[in-house]
Each structure stands twice: as structure tokens, then as C-alpha cells.
Amino acid sequence: MKVIISGAGIGGLALAQGLHHAGHEVVVFERGTLPEGPSGYRLRLDSRAVAVLRRLLPPELWTALLASGVGAGAIQRLGYHDQHLRFLAEDRREDFDVLMIGRGPLRRMLAHGIVDRVRWSTTVASYDVGPESVSVTLSDGTVEHGDLVVSAEGVHSPLRVQLLGDAGYRSTGSIAVSGRVPGRPTDLGLPVMDEALRLGYLLASGPHELGMFLAVHDPSAGPSIDPAAVGPVAPDLEDAYLTWGLIGPESDMPTGDDAALRHGVEQLVASWHPEFGRLPGLSDPASVQRYGITAATEVPIWPTTAVTVLGDAVHAVPPSGGIGASTAIRDAGHLVEAISATSGRAELLRALHSYEQTMRGYADQVVADSVKPLHWQHQLASPAVHTVATGVLAGAQGLRRLVRR
Ligand SMILES: Cc1cc2nc3c(=O)[nH]c(=O)nc-3n(C[C@H](O)[C@H](O)[C@H](O)COP(=O)(O)OP(=O)(O)OC[C@H]3O[C@@H](n4cnc5c(N)ncnc54)[C@H](O)[C@@H]3O)c2cc1C
């Protein structure tokens, strides 16, 4: 079977790996290029996504992937703090994060061995379903035929719009500005953050519905596998960095180029602990970006054809949940499983229908869970609640309940 995948992001590449190793012909179209060097943000992949990747990747690539990230022991908690960096509460979990890996290394690892199956800098414009085959038309007018087309283009997917008639997401009203600071907090003169980040992530709640998420990524400090166990594929190791993301209401968040964004964030956190205000200036200017937080509307039911859709293209997961990439990988795993052993169009359509039903079974819940962390900011926005919740440090359990509602 020949499968055309539109989009070499996380889900598209995971699918391509799985299908390629199952013996299918795969062609991936990607409008961008494969990033080199440090790029993007650190992703956390949950245990489900890691289990899928283990199944989809050949063993030597799997061990190299693990060696390119940080394993479970490095993150033991999510700590809630106020804007003065005072500890409020924490969320501890047994399997808190299984693999933390930069988006660049993850995509490079997922492209390993199939890089010649990807046509980079090539944009897919539309699809067409014929009686025997299906095709995509590229933006230069070229047509490519296959047996199945998978839209894996993330949010703003043109094929999703063609298939389902709408973009399938809404704005949450929140905007994020994020950046990455090269180095470890210890070396950067951020002692209070260093202490707070030692056991895991930090979520700081400020006034006016502002919240900042912080995480340190240091693959050399805690690789998830003994380097001696790594096979012939070399790990893709990044130098240590700290990522931050300030989320707030659209009307208050800065706009403009990276200098304007950094200046705007400095102003917004001016009354916070001074270490927050130092982050924009320490950041790699190229890493500073602003993006709207969008969330999928309910995944619709559609008549199955030889065109299907996975990942953010069908269920845009807001980054506040930290689970969108994991869910795209989960989709890819189900799709590979469903179509691997099919032959003929009728069987393929039955398999695709089964994949779509399975994906619908969890996607809406994943999106709903990912929107929840935005609610605590709205709840804390009321001056009375903010004062009580952040002032009464001994009442951490109260905040914890508040956060979880
Ligand atoms: C700051 C931030 C932090 C995040 N942290 C986490 C985290 O810790 N854990 C987690 O699980 N998730 C996280 N996410 C979410 C995660 O990045 C996304 O949910 C995930 O990348 C979705 O995967 P995807 O394959 O659906 O789409 P993408 O990874 O977005 O890939 C889509 C690809 O399709 C390409 N494309 C688009 N249109 C076309 C076209 N017409 N033709 C050809 N190619 C096209 C794009 O260039 C892109 O490469 C985070 C997101 C952000 C913004």
C-alpha cells in the first residue's frame, strides 16, 4: 500500500516510521525543512506515547531516542508558586513524565532512516478521492497518487478543512510568549529558581490572570538510558537550557518582534520576583515566540474515505496540557495498528473507520483536560481568590483543590 502523509511533524513522522517498517510505501510532504541544531521547545512524552514509539521504531533508533532525552527520575513534581517564588503546593505522580526531549531532536530522530521518504519544502494544497486511488495536489500543481492520504498538518490544516469543512478549533482567549535560556539556572545566577526547579517543573501564578511555566532541560544530567546500551545510531544531545512561557489574556500580552516581546514580558513581570524579569534578557532572541492558545472543538463524525486525519489537525490540544505531541503519537500508533495488515480498499476503509472511532474515544477528553490548567489562572484572577490562595501558604491543600477543579 502507498500512503501519502501531509506534514512531517511529530505525528506524521511517527506514522511514517511505523508504516515504513511494516513494509508500506510512504511519501511524506513537509512544507518546512528538518531543523538543525537547537530549535523549538522541550516536549514531555507520556508513558503511552513512549510505549507507541517503542513499538513503531527499530530497536537501534529507539535506544538512540531514549539517549537523546531525559528519563522519568528527573521530574518528580510540578511545583505551584506565587509570583514572589513562594512555594504553594505541589503535584507528585509516580510516572511523572517518561521522556523529556527537545522538539528538534525528536523530529530528527523520527526522520532517521526515512529522510529520503520526505519531500521537504513541499506544501500540499488539496486532495482528491477517485474510485480506485486517492491523490494530493501540491502547491506547484504536481499531483501524487496513492492508496491513502493522511492529514498530519497540525493546526491550520488545509486537508482537514477540505475533509471536515472547518478548522476545528477555537481560541481560548489566552496568549503565550515563550523563550529558551541557554545554560542551567545555577550558572545563570538564578539561585531561587534553581532551587525551585530542582525536582521538576514550576508554575508561578501572578495577578491579572498571568501565569508562568518554567522547566529545565538537561539531557546530559539524566539520560533515560545507560549510554553504553546505545546501538549504532548516535543520540542527538542538546546542551542544557531553561524554557519559560508566560500565559495571559490576549488583551494584555505584548506583540511585535522578539525585542518587543521580551520588553513586554519584562514589564508584565516587573513586580514579580526579580529572577522572572531576568529571563527575557537571558533568552536566545531567536527562541522568543508568541502564539495563541487554541483548543479543538468536538471531534466530529464523518463518513470514512481513503483520507484520514491525525494529531492537532483533528484535535488541536492546547500546550497548557503538555500532551498534544503524545496524543499525535498515540493516534499514529492506532493508525499503524489498524491498517498494517489490510489489503484492498474495502478492508482499508474498515480499518480506517476503526482507527477514527478509537481516536474519537479519547481525543475530546484529552482536549478538555488540557484546557483545565488555564482555568486555575482565571480562578486566581479574582483579587480576593488570588490574595487568599497565594497569601495563605499553609493552606496549600486548598490551592491544590482549587487548581484541580
Ligand atoms: C510551547 C509548546 C509546548 C508544548 N509542549 C508539549 C509537551 O511538553 N508535550 C506534548 O505532548 N505536547 C506539547 N505541545 C504540543 C505539541 O507540540 C503539538 O500538539 C504536536 O506537535 C502536534 O503534533 P502534530 O503531528 O499533530 O502536528 P505538528 O507537530 O505541528 O506537525 C505538523 C507539520 O505539518 C506541516 N504542514 C502544515 N501544513 C502543511 C501542508 N499544507 N503541507 C505540508 N506540510 C504541512 C508543518 O510544517 C508541521 O511540520 C507543546 C506545544 C507548544 C506550542
UniProtKB/TrEMBL annotation:
GO terms for molecular function: FAD binding; monooxygenase activity. It holds the Pfam family FAD_binding_3. Keywords: FAD, Flavoprotein, Monooxygenase, Oxidoreductase. Residues 2-368 form the FAD-binding domain. The keyword Flavoprotein applies. InterPro entries: FAD-bd (IPR002938), FAD/NAD-bd_sf (IPR036188). This is FAD-binding domain-containing protein. It comes from uncultured Actinomycetospora sp.
